[in-house]
Amino acid sequence: MCVGMFMAVLDIQIVASSLPDIQIGLVIPLEQLSWVQTAYLMAEIVAIPLTGWLTRMASTRIAFACATVGFTVASAGCAAAGSFWSMLTARVVQGFFGGFLIPIVFSAIFVMFERPQRSRATMIAGILAMLAPTLGPTVGGFITERASWHWLFLINLPAGVAVTLLTLAMVRIDRGSWREIAGADLGAAPLLAGFLATLQVVSSEAPMRGWLSPAMLALAVLCVGCGFGTIRRCLRHRTPLVDLAPFRERNFAIGCWFSFMLGVGLYGATYLLPLFLGLVREHDALEIGAIMIVTGGAQLAAAPVATLLETRLNPMLLTGFGYAMLAAGCLGNGFMTPATDFWGLAAQQAARGIAFMFCLLPTTALALDHLPPVSVPNASGLFNLMRNLGGAVGLALIGSIVETRAPEHAAALVERLQAGDREAARFVGLPLDQFTGQPLGPIDQATRDLVAPMVERAGLTAAFNEAWLLVGGVVLLSLLLLPLLARHRRHPDE
What we know:
By secondary structure, the chain is mainly α. The protein has 19 helices and no strands.
């Protein structure tokens, strides 16, 4: 089941470094290329909160097997796509079925295992869930370079078949009840889909198209309306499609907030760092992967330690340590220069790699341990949804900062350079002998052509720094809710 989940998480990022090849192969207009990613994320985020209803109806075994089959068939559809629209359709189906796999795995852990086995199982799932976004662009670049972009999706086929057969043969957790179809408030499904899909689209597209553009404003209004309608129906219906009752539990609500902030830090870091290394340092996908492997290595090293401590120390203490390390790892990247490379990024990456497991393990336990087993699948879906929503909101803020602030920083650097500012020259990477604090004279065109790309990269770096500081700052502020967590307790049914 963890292998199936890893496939689903990996497919969020695996196409990132190969989008130019997909664009050429399918003749996709540049302005529509981002939808290859957005379509997957949009469908995935709709599926996640439906996990509880699906497992109650079909059982964990059948739900996971069906989701794996759907994901595998859709992967074959992506590989066989001959046009933009066929790729888009296949990615929507792939994302929808992939969205079920992540929360089902975490809910299965809490139903199948008791402590201390539960902590070890959560560690295994957590490692794969956190490593996949880091490895995705590198794996995708390697596969595309060695074979073709079609193999980004074809590699899912043998693994998908094996996971489906093993799940059907070995997983025995609960029994489903098909009466859930008749009893559930299926009328809430279109509202839920409209709310989450428009939220994902606005978060992805608004930084490029403008938050106040007519299309984005219309989608934002639709998002708010569908969201209000969804919450209203979920609170009033006797058997809601998505049960929001777990949010009445203080630990679950605060745990979901920390899950949201983990999404901000995790997806923000896996977006910002490759972008800096590609656009500013001009590394290719394999070089970016070699640099980012520090995060994965630190995560693997920290996982057994986090698992050991999670069974022995107060999870509130571990949560505080994890999010403080995550904040430090992001804030530390807020002082990069255009010359920053492997060694200037290693310590921050190590801090984030260590932090991820200390963020995931104790908060998952704090949020889900005290719930009755029958409520865990639904609660796991909500808990994982909050992490994805955190990623969507964080990427929207980051995209807006990079889009708007990079040109402003570049223009400010030009003014400072013309005034002879040595610090600006040092940041851009220009020789300092001509910058004495006095205004520069006329600059010839050849010099302008040479300096302009350096100034643009420096302006982009400054915008990246602001984004890193924002991400680190909001993660640090999230620790203010830590004292509100109640003392950890397990549900008496265990």
